[in-house]
Write a structure and sequence with these properties.
Elements (H helix, E strand, L loop, with lengths): L6 E4 L5 E4 L3 E3 L5 E3 L7 H65 L3 H4 L3 H14 L3 E8 L5 E4 L18 E3 L7 E7 L6 E7 L2 H8 L6 E6 L5 E4 L3 H4 L6 H9 L2 E7 L5 E8 L6 E7 H83 L4 H28 L7 E4 H16 L3 E7 L5 E4 L1 H18 L4 E10 L2 E8 L6 H4 L19 H11 L3 E6 L5 E8 L1 H9 L1
Parallel strand pairs: 16-18
Antiparallel strand pairs: 1-2, 3-4, 5-6, 5-9, 7-8, 8-9, 10-11, 10-14, 12-13, 13-14, 15-17, 18-19, 19-21, 20-21
């Protein structure tokens, strides 16, 4: 793991008890302890339990809102229906009074004797005690003519009899608009007693039921207006809207959606009289009912979504928590493995370095002794190889030391020039190698040996990614207070899914036996111990571009002087 390590305690059995400490590299390259994870397993359990308890709470709240909205809607409809029923009850009572008065008058002696002149005088006296009656007629069913007509003075010309059935409102004609009441004369078969009733009596009953924003109508059995809270004089006796007439045809009681002549979109509650077949219709603005219905829909859908989201959130949190714990366990295993191998490598490197010390000492003696020139030359070559091996073993030891490798100011341009031949030999003849350093690249703070090895690792990885054929570009430049060394190849590139683990120790995509997984880990470690970093980007073509960022020696000097 980049910038991470695990320390351990050795108990009496010789086993390593992991004392896990996670570190991150600070801006100056020193290890700084990270804060532990804030949410423990017990807290995670409480969060999950809280999420599960939230589900019934959401359902109960949604159900309470639904009941409230349904109750509000039902209240509006019930009030409208009560008004319709109340109006019909009052109208039925009035019609019963009118019908009783007409039936009583039909048994009068003058009508029984067919004394039409005396009957006319008696009719006018009856009208005086029934101010809502506009006229009284006695109609001969055979001729359709009135033998008694209070609309005509004695000796006056006869007038047309309004045509209409019992309890029907007629708009046109002398004495109309009027409601027609028919009563057969028991003592004069073939003659009907007819009363023309002023509809304003019913209009006054209707207006007592009107509230703001409500339109009420009273219609007869044919769907004609008897009374109406709007435009009474204009609408009385005319057909109601198709919505009202459809309800009249259906009969009974109920609620329907309609639109008034004035364009009011509404819900109308209606109630039909069983005795007269008249019906009262109370129109309420659809907003008073649709608004609760709309919010009812919103609550239903919102409650369902909130429940699903809450449940999904609990499940998702549980899955994420499980995945995070698995990743933590895997990371701990990798760190323990790296720590164990690091300790083992440190011991091997230390012993190997001791052996090389003996080899180097003897080679130096041979080269300084009085021996043949060929032996001196061969001893010099062996001495150079042994010294390089010693430097490599020192690099292994530097990773295990608490303070890391020794750092110095490295001339980047000179470094690239020195390793150019080594890089050319490493990548082979099939790879075109270009090495260039910008004039302002300057010096970087790093361990020279580790930096050389990092460039060699990147070059070899690039060669393998290009299968030995392609172009490799190594460049250096100054970027603010950092020096950037970029290694760009023309290979297949690195998938995004692999970049997260790219610099982990022992992680490799190469076949078994062809890679150790330590090359890029060494690159990251060299950069981190120098106080820098390494990142990977897509190249200009399809290849990969590794950028090592190191602190500039001049910028550090300027900062120290300031």
């Amino acid at each position: 793991m980049e910038g991470g390590r695990i320390t351990g305690l050795i108990d009496g059995t010789g086993e390593t008890k992991p004392d896990i400490k996670l570190y991150r590299e600070s801006e100056r390259g020193r290890p700084a302890r990270m804060r532990p994870l804030a949410v423990g397993s017990g807290q995670r359990l409480l969060i999950i339990i809280g999420g599960l308890l939230l589900l019934p709470a959401i359902l109960l709240l949604a159900w309470a809102l639904i009941l409230g909205l349904m109750r509000a809607q039902a209240t509006v409809e019930a009030r409208a229906l009560d008004k319709a029923k109340s109006l019909i009850t009052a109208v039925d009572n009035q019609l019963a009074v009118e019908r009783g008065a007409l039936r009583t008058f039909s048994t009068a002696d003058t009508l029984m004797r067919r004394d039409w002149r005396a009957a006319a005088r008696r009719s006018r006296s009856v009208m005086s005690v029934n101010p809502g009656w506009r006229a009284v007629l006695v109609v001969d069913e055979r001729t359709g003519r009135a033998v008694v007509d209070t609309r005509v003075a004695d000796g006056g010309a006869p007038r047309p009899v309004p045509t209409g059935t019992d309890l029907e409102l007629v708009r046109t004609g002398d004495g109309c608009p009027c409601v027609i009441l028919h009563q057969p004369l028991p003592g004069a078969p073939g003659f009907d007693l007819v009363a023309l009733i002023d509809p304003r009596d019913y209009q006054s009953m209707l207006m007592r039921e009107v509230d703001e924003g409500v339109v009420i109508a009273l219609v007869d059995r044919r769907g004609n207006f008897v009374a109406r809270s709007l435009d009474f004089d204009k609408r009385v006796g005319t057909p109601a809207t198709i919505y009202v007439r459809n309800a009249v045809a259906k009969g009974g009681t109920g609620v329907y959606r309609g639109r008034t002549y004035e364009g009011l979109e509404n819900y109308s509650a209606y109630f039909t009289s069983v005795s007269s077949d008249w019906s009262a219709h109370v129109a309420v603005s659809n907003k008073l009912i649709d608004t609760p219905r709309f919010w009812l829909f919103i609550v239903l859908v919102g409650g369902a979504l909130a429940t699903l989201l809450a449940g999904g959130g609990v499940i998702t949190y549980g899955l994420i928590d499980m995945a995070a714990r698995r990743r933590t366990e895997e990371q701990m295993l990798r760190l323990q493995k790296g720590e164990a191998i690091g300790r083992f490598s440190s011991g091997v490197a230390h012993d190997f370095n001791n052996l090389l010390t003996v080899v180097i000492g003897n080679l130096e003696r041979i080269r300084s002794a009085d021996v043949a020139a060929d032996v001196k030359r061969r001893a010099g070559m062996a001495l150079e190889a042994a010294q390089r091996g010693a430097r490599l073993s020192n690099q292994l030891l530097s990773f295990a030391r608490e303070g890391g490798a020794d750092k110095e100011a490295v001339d980047v341009a000179a470094l690239l020039n020195d390793v150019s031949e080594l890089l050319r030999q490493s990548v082979g003849d099939g790879v075109t190698l270009t090495i260039a350093a910008a004039a302002d690249a300057g010096t970087a703070v790093a361990n020279r040996d580790q930096l050389e090895l990092a460039l060699l690792n990147l070059a070899i990885n690039a060669r393998d990614a290009m299968a030995g054929q392609g172009a490799l570009d190594v460049s250096a430049r100054r970027a603010g207070g950092m020096v950037e060394i970029a290694v760009t190849d023309t290979g297949a590139g690195i998938p995004a899914a692999l970049r997260e683990r790219l610099f982990e120790p022992f992680f490799t995509t190469k076949p078994a036996g062809q890679g150790t997984g330590l090359g890029l880990a060494q690159v990251a470690g060299a950069a981190a111990q120098a106080g820098g970093s390494v990142r990977v980007e897509d190249g200009e073509g399809t290849g990969a571009r590794f950028i090592i960022s190191l602190p500039s020696a001049s910028s550090l000097q300027d900062h120290a002087g300031a």
